[in-house]
Amino acid sequence: MATLVALKRVLIGFGILVLCIWMYIDIFIHRECESSPRERVFSANIERRILTIRKKAIISAKKVEAIESITQNDVIETMVLTKESNFIIKPPPESTTAKVSAPEYYVMTMLTVFNDRVWPGYENFTAGDLAERDNEYLDTLDRNLKHKNVKEIHLFYIYEDALSVLGRRMHANLHKVVPVKIERPMHMSDFFIYASRKLVNKAAIAMNGDIVLGEGFDKINTEKMRDEKVMYSLSRYYMLDKTSQCNLANMKLPSDYMVSHDTHVFRLAEPLNETLILDKLNYPINMWGAENAMHWTFKNVLNFTVRNPCRVLVTHHNHCSKVHGPSLEKVDEHKYSIYYLPNKGWTQKKVLQSYTPFENSLAYRKRKKSGFLAFFYSFLLRWT
Hints:
This protein has 13 helices and 11 strands. With 384 residues, it is of the alpha/beta class.
């Protein structure tokens, strides 16, 4: 008998707990969502109740006196408390908060077209192959010029005749192009030295010539990015498989972490140390390990937080042609890797420290690890 009494008390207590939770959700959670279906029903009920009272007031003198005792201010105060609903007798004063406009980006990329010219290392490709690759580069540039958040594209080029290709093949949005003449293939250091000289306090994007900007870039708080020294270095979406047609719908993000980061979003509060940038990042951008060395430098030397919210900020790799640079399988043969840069000390340990995995949301400055976590992390790296 005592057991049944105890069980009954437990069930009553549990019921009260469930009721309290339901009331909390109903009062606080549902009211946070502006104009939800539940609030619209709640609002309609208020309106019907008020109309009912007014009709009854005409019939009953006593009810008229009761209603007249409720001042207009009381009604307004009641409606203001439910201002999230659609039914408001007196609208609240207009907000004085300034609207935040979508950010405008200054993109740095390269005009990498062969234009019937065979570059060193590409001798094994046919003229048709190279022309197909040129079309991908020009299609990418055209798409990025049309992007709603792109203010300017600072276009790095080597050969003068490459610019003439733009005049022949493209006609829209060329006013956004700022040509930048360079004397050698693009190096990682070029991005950040140029941004330090020309784009301080501007939302900048440095990216490869075959990367198409997608959605999500209007969501970034670039001022917070600047103040908290944050860089978004994004993994690209790529073709689902080698047999897919080359279109943006087929370019998916792989399920596992890939070490390719071809788009870097940042906003400098002040110029970077050019001597340091040249010492650490003066190598071609398509060298194996290029992004690893850049991540490590920004994290450990320049004290930036480097993140990879590639599931929010979408970029597409527009590369379906067969034209590729030196392969990873032959890296020991061609030595086109940061490991072979003389006197730079790039090691596997530093590459592991550059690890920047996928993220599902926008975030900014990372908190420092606790003492135990920092010790455990350094211990793992020491024995890797």
